[in-house]
Fold this protein.
Amino acid sequence: MKITDETIRTSLRSETRAPQKANLKLYSEFSAYRSKRSRLTYAAIIGIPAAAVLLGAGVYTIHNGGYFHDVKNGFGTVTGVTYENATDEISIKAVRKSEQIELTVQILEPYINKMPYEDCEQLKIGKCTLISKGKNTDFSTDEISEVENGKAIFFLDIADADSISITELISRKKADADLSIYGNWEIPLE
């Protein structure tokens, strides 16, 4: 027999003179039924919106490319911010000109007026690796280029390399801390 709210009410009304044991048994069965139903209801009320929010946040991150990431020290205190996954937001091209390489960094159109690029006044190359005939060499430069209309041009003194791999660009703005922009750019040299 399936116990419902109506079953309990009618049996309690009709058995007003019945022994207390019958009422107690029905009441305990009803309580067990009601508490199980309540737990499932609350789980659904809390679980479904929580899953939707988490799924929505994941989709938002996937479709929008880059995201900010807090840099924390050993105590969990935020000490800085980086910008991650910017590979699809910036285009880098290289052209060999005698003993130099002209490296053009272009912030792509839909992102040019969005954070963190709208505040970018200067760019610097952070982590860079030269790839030459299967041999990788870390390369660093102190050259800083002004950003104009989302474009920065670097002239690097590199004699022989087949391609360049850049994993970090550093954005600078006057009176502001540097912002590391991470991505994975593989640039073949022409």
